[in-house]
Amino acid sequence: MSREAVESWLATIPVYAVLDENQGLVLLQEEGNDKEIANFFFKAETCNTLYEPIKKENEGADWDISQLGLGQVWFDLFLANDTPGVEYRLVPDTKEVERARMMVEQNSPGEPSELFKARYNQIPVFLDQRLRVKTDSGEDKVPMYLDLKNCMTTCQQAMDASPDDYESEISVAELTNLLHEMQSEDASCDFRQTILIPPIEELPELGKKGIKSSTAPKNDEPQLMSTDDLWDD
């Protein structure tokens, strides 16, 4: 996929960072790290929890939480990586990391893995390869969620709507691995058939305006990615 296609895929996902009065990133220092740290969060609340105490220690600091597009941040900062002395971090919700880690351990018992052990730059993405959602444009796509409860809610709606045709089977992948795979020549699937969904407090119900769930037939072979791809470290 081209940069434009990947940016479009990421366009639904906002990230949050703290900017100063000059619209520059507020950088933090970490003991034992000779680089300054720029954090990007998937929830404004998480961002505020970390920075509010620091702001109070810096009397007079004119800081604000700003919403940025993940696509631009990913390409212009993380991939470009051309700011000496600065380390960029994508910070996931700790609860989602814990849930993802439990899924890894349950699905691969006894197999050591470093996946979802880091506090940053390992972002869980939850999906069911047989689940489909209808977008506003009328296309059926495989939804990929940053929030496990959102994924489970949609799966439950699909099971309620088609109890004889659908059984949920949720897997977890890692976002930065997916982004690198998207731009590789030997990508294992067509990510244009998927849609990335940000954390949502309340998902629309089936039959109402918005995303609608449908399911692939049980005898459909999954075309998204293999289990090995999902658990690749």
Protein described:
The strands form 3 sheets. Strands 5, 6, 7, 8, 9 and 10 form a 6-stranded mixed beta sheet that branches. Strands 1-3 form a two-stranded antiparallel sheet. It has a two-stranded parallel ribbon with strand order 2-4. It starts with a helix and ends with a helix. The chain has helices spanning about 5-10, 45-55, 70-80, 95-105, 150-160, 175-180, 225-230; strands at about 15-20, 35-40, 65-70, 85-90, 125, 130-135, 140-145, 170-175, 195, 210-215. The radius of gyration is 19 Å and the shape is globular. Helix 1 (about 5-10) crosses helix 3 (about 70-80). It is built from 7 helices and 10 strands. A hairpin with a 5-residue loop joins strand 6 (about 130-135) and strand 7 (about 140-145). It is α+β, with helices and mostly antiparallel strands and about 230 residues long. Mean pLDDT is about 85; it is low at about 205-210 and about 220-233.
